[in-house]
Structure formats: structure tokens, C-alpha cells
Write a structure and sequence with these properties.
The chain is α/β, with parallel strands linked by helices and about 280 residues long. Helices cover about 25% and strands about 30% of the residues. About 45% of the residues are buried. Zinc ion binds next to loops.
């Protein structure tokens, strides 16, 4: 299979992460006029980072494997559909902030035939998968808390699915009228799994409004709530892919998880749509 490359519209939207100049792609190297260069990895993503990332930030290989297996089981397919309908009939550039293996971005692209996707994530392991998740998807390793290596106003949609939220950068990279689609867990999400997962803060939605309200106006919120029979493998994977996946060796989680049976599990996720404020 030929190595995936970056779509030209993604290259046009990217900026050098050292000097913020536009970049060009020659062979498999991105370069700017100041001669800063970034090679495409064999798997098709580009790493624009030049600072070390604290441990416990980027999803690890076992977490990404668990996430890919869990998503492939179809358990979150209704969520992917809800995210695609929240994104609407979009065209132009869709940026997925904290895209992980690119499952949701690929799904949105499959419903939006003229759109192009940019997956940003600090986990190179995750982006190896994202870069192959859809032919119209490009992937760049970056820390979302730093100013993004992306031009102003280039995106029609930003997606954030269970990932860190940088409202100022969402606002800067979105075009006027652009929309932000956020998926975040509701209280009760995965509650049957007890302390194998992090409990969802009852005031999470309020905190979301505080984080985003300075730059965005909430347009809608849809709650996706259901009880789904999970297999023991799905239980394992949903725990191992989440934040406690960094700490499976604490509190005997790994041993407990190995003997946790399947059973009904509550899924409770809010998908909210936010319109960019024009200042
Ligand atoms: C809970 S996962 C969600 C992944 C994907 N959106 C999904 O739902 O399948 C959070 C993702 O955010 C990424 N992440 C965490 N901190 C980050 C940061 N500071 N900058 C960029 N990505 C980050 C992780 O590597 C991980 O892929
Ligand atoms: Zn440069």
C-alpha cells in the first residue's frame, strides 16, 4: 500500500510550528521559507512538535490499541452518527482536536464528500492510525495547549471528542460562522464500571459553558443515552483506552479488569454545537 501523504488543502492550512510561516510539501518533507523542516513519517502523519511532552499526556500504544479495538466493535457508532449530524452538511476543512485514531473524523468525512480533515493529537501512535483512517485526512502531532500550527480562519468545523479544550485556538482557526462540535461524558457514563473509570463531574456541563462561553455561543445539545450489553472484551477496552489506562497498575486495576465480566453498561454523552462569536 502506498504511504499516505498530507492532502494539499491540509498543507495549505498548516503553519510552521517554529516561525508560523506557510509551509510547502516537497517529496515527503514539509518546509517553510526559513528552512525549518518536518519529515512525514512512513505512516503518513507529520510531527510538528519541538518540545517534550509530560508523561501521561499522549495516549500510549496499549491505550490506542484498546481504543481502536473498542471503536471497531461499533459500541460508539451511534455517537459517531450524532457527531456527523451535529457537524452538518459541511465542506472545507474539519479539524479534529485530540483526534486519537481518527475514528470520528473519518466518519464525518465519509458523510461530507467535499470536506478535508486535519487530525491533531499529541500521540504519534494514535496518529499512525488516523493517517490511514480516511484518504481525505491529514494528521499532525501537536500539543493542543500551545498555539496551533494552523492558519487563522481556515476551518469550517472543529471537533472535540473527549479531548482537551482550547477555546481561544478553536476560535482563531475557525472561519467566521464556523461551528464547534463537542462530545463530553454526562454523569452516569460507564457508571457500572465503578472506580475502573473516572467518575464524571456532576458540574461538567457547567464547566464546559465556562470554558467555551467567552468565544462561542451554544446552539444545541443532544444527549445520547442508552444501556448497552458490553462483552468482557469491550469492558476491558473501554477502561484501558480511557484516562485510567495510564494507571492500570494502581489499585490492582489490571487484575480486577481481567476478571470483570461483561454486562449492561450505561453510555451517556452530550454532543453540543457551538457557533463562533464574531468579535
Ligand atoms: C480520550 S482520548 C479521545 C480520542 C478521540 N477523540 C476519540 O474519542 O477516539 C484523548 C486524546 O487527546 C489526546 N491529548 C491529550 N492531551 C493532549 C494535548 N495536550 N494535545 C494534543 N492531544 C492531546 C490524547 O493523546 C488522546 O488521543
Ligand atoms: Zn519556519
Amino acid at each position: 500500500m502506498p504511504a499516505p501523504a498530507l492532502p494539499s488543502q491540509v498543507v495549505a492550512a498548516l503553519r510552521c510550528s517554529v516561525c508560523a510561516s506557510p509551509v510547502q510539501l516537497t517529496d515527503r518533507t514539509l518546509h517553510c521559507p526559513q528552512r525549518h523542516t518536518f519529515d512525514l513519517a512512513r505512516q503518513g502523519y507529520v510531527n510538528l512538535l519541538h518540545a517534550r511532552i509530560p508523561a501521561g499526556t499522549a495516549d500510549t500504544a496499549p491505550m490506542v490499541e484498546a481504543r481502536a479495538a473498542f471503536l471497531a466493535s461499533g459500541a460508539y457508532a451511534p455517537l459517531a452518527d450524532a457527531i456527523a449530524s451535529a457537524a452538518g452538511p459541511c465542506s472545507g476543512l474539519i479539524i479534529d482536536a485530540g483526534a486519537g485514531p481518527g475514528y470520528y473524523l473519518a466518519h464525518v468525512l465519509s458523510k461530507a464528500p467535499s470536506a478535508i480533515g486535519l487530525a491533531l493529537d499529541v500521540s504519534a501512535v494514535a496518529l499512525r492510525r488516523a493517517a490511514r483512517a480516511h484518504p481525505r485526512l491529514g494528521a499532525a502531532v501537536w500539543n493542543l495547549w500551545e498555539p496551533w500550527p494552523v492558519a487563522d480562519g481556515v476551518a469550517s468545523v472543529v471537533l472535540d471528542v473527549f479531548s482537551p479544550r482550547n477555546a481561544a485556538e478553536y476560535h482563531r482557526v475557525l472561519a467566521p460562522g464556523g461551528r464547534l462540535v463537542v462530545a463530553s461524558p454526562l454523569p452516569g457514563h460507564l457508571a457500572e464500571l465503578g472506580d475502573l473509570v473516572l467518575a464524571v463531574d456532576a458540574r461538567k456541563d457547567e464547566r464546559l459553558s465556562t470554558t467555551l462561553g467567552s468565544h462561542f455561543v451554544r446552539e444545541s445539545t443532544r444527549e445520547i443515552v442508552s444501556t448497552v450489553p458490553f462483552t468482557a472484551t469491550q469492558v476491558h477496552d473501554v477502561v484501558a483506552m480511557g484516562p485510567t489506562g495510564f494507571h492500570l497498575d494502581r489499585d490492582h486495576r489490571r487484575e480486577r479488569l481481567a476478571t470483570t465480566p461483561g454486562g449492561p453498561v450505561t453510555l451517556a454523552v452530550a454532543v453540543s454545537v457551538w457557533r463562533r462569536k464574531d468579535f
